[in-house]
Amino acid sequence: MSSPSDRPGTPGGTHGTDAPDATGERPGSDERATRIVRSLVDMARTHKTGESVWGPLENLADRWQEPFARAAVVGEVSVGKSTLVNALVGQEVLPAATEALSAVTVELRHGPHTRATVGLHDGTDAVTRELADKEEFLVYLTTRGEKQVAVRHGRNAQVLWAVVALPSPLLEEGLRLTDTPGVGGLDPAHRRQTLAALSNTDAVLFVIRPGQPISASELRFLAESVHRVSSYVIVQTHRDQTSDAQVRLDKNLAVLRDPDTWRKLLGDGTDAEGTAARFARVPGVCVAARHALDALDAEPGQDRDRDMRFSGIPELARLLREEVVDQAGELHRRDLLRLTESTAEAVRARLVERKALLSPGEAAERAVREREENVLRWVGKGGDTWKPDLEAATTFVQDEVRELARERVKLLESTYLAHFESMKTKKLQEAAARLVIEPPTVLAEMRLLIATRLDDAVVKITARNPQDAVSAHLERLALTDGLDAHLPTSFKQSDTMLDDEYLTGVAMTGIPLLARQFADARRKANEEERGPVRRTDHGSVMRTTIDALSAVAKNPAVTAIVVAASLFAGLVAWRQGKARTLAAVKEVYSKVTGLITKDAVEHSVAQAARERDAIIEVIEARLREEREQIDRDRDDLARSTDLTALERAALLNESDLALREVDSLVAELAGIRTGWGL
């Protein structure tokens, strides 16, 4: 196991054991990687490489060293999730079990001081608010405080999410913990809601109690979720309340690793074998979280150390470092190297073209002609070589969205409506409470479908035109999106109004979101400065645009909640109404199914079209950039005929020196890859 100073994202950390060179940098050091990134961006600017080439890399230049990984804590109500989270971060920040938490997702991240921010929807607008003290924390995050939230923000106000920043050694090493609401028996509605929340999660801590066999509903959730994340840990709480905790955990792990368990549940032999094999690699840990918190308050010494070891929290923290943080850091560095190497290839290609333009004869004309032919492949016949792929993907996913809504309503009819007549008052209330979860959950599923289908279309388009300028640009955007999703960003710490433009922005993900940011930057530049289109500093624009969004906008599950709150504001009133009669619950059912089949579908169909248009816009912007480069090359070619032999030789020498510098940087990148063990 690596020491903290060696771990990815830790200040002062290095990778590899090679001795420093003359600059004092190790071959695999973060400092050297940052220097190479900045050098490549500077070279791209100097040699007039398109902004789309260096913009994505520049955006990451000052932030890439701080990657984080997300781990979601999942389990039924009252299994000890919040106490477990408190023990992992080393302080009691979440309300105790005696304070019932409301259905709010809470993300905990490292910060120099403890502070909390919540996102709300007041029935009309989305706002963020910084909480002043722990008492306010209890108001906004517990069921006890729901009435006070209504008094402060209106009867339809709903807390959507919360972010807590606090000093914590484990979080400082690059982990973000998400405490999910109790899933209430993991009934289908809660199961779908929780699964949707895993779309941008690296690991799951699935929490169980000792002495209770894993239920069928828990098994179904485990089967559906274990393949969605890269790391999984089974955590059994209350170790201090039984003498055979490890034996009980081993029995549950044996059940998960038995293919027969999954054959009975899934029916499919292949899926059963695969799921059992996946759980064979899933570790389990017994913990006594309360024990760990008590030990943290005790005087340092042997007793305290013994209690901490018994609590199992140090072992769980070690697993999280090795299985989650370190792995996420490795993937992050691999993607950074790919993006940097791709940018270096583009810069090198531009320098080779420049040399060709300076060379007498057919070579120069051929270089310009090849660029023109490449552009023509994309723009010929109105983009018929690639636009149909996006149109087909959009139409297909729009039909999928409608079908998803129809199938979900059929499921709700058989699950709820068919049984209302036989339900007692308490069951009717529970059914109504579960029903209001469905519209935002369906919306999140629709968003994931849209992102997946359009991303697939982009992959298909780039595969048809490999290695050309536009395809390389799309691949760099995809890498940027993957890297950026695990990098910190700021968020406003006040009662900030989040308008429709914000909601439209957070509805997008991946390449469409980045495309929108670039397009918005260009439009804003044109509006602010009339006349010739000015060059846009994409690095600055990307940072400004991202900072303008709430930090949670990077979490698709949370952004779906924000958008859903705007679309389904009336649901809060239905939830708070606590329908008790058959007629009232049927009215809730009718409202919910209407929101799914109409509001959610209309929003998602429009969103698919917006994301398609955003991708088209970023491709067309790159093509415009290519055409502008062709015009400049034609001008340079015309001027080159007037160069003297001495002037031509000087410019060729300058290009040769730049090529050698790029090759040197690429060689250094290879050394960094070796130093990082990649």
TrEMBL record:
Comp. bias (Basic and acidic residues): 23-34
Entry-linked Pfam families: Dynamin_N
Gene3D superfamilies from the UniProt entry: P-loop containing nucleotide triphosphate hydrolases (3.40.50.300)
Record region (Disordered): 1-34
Domain Dynamin N-terminal, first and last residues per copy: 72-234
UniProt-listed SUPFAM superfamilies: P-loop containing nucleoside triphosphate hydrolases
Domain of life: Bacteria
Signal sequence bounds: none
Protein name, per record: Dynamin N-terminal domain-containing protein
Organism listed in the record: Streptomyces uncialis
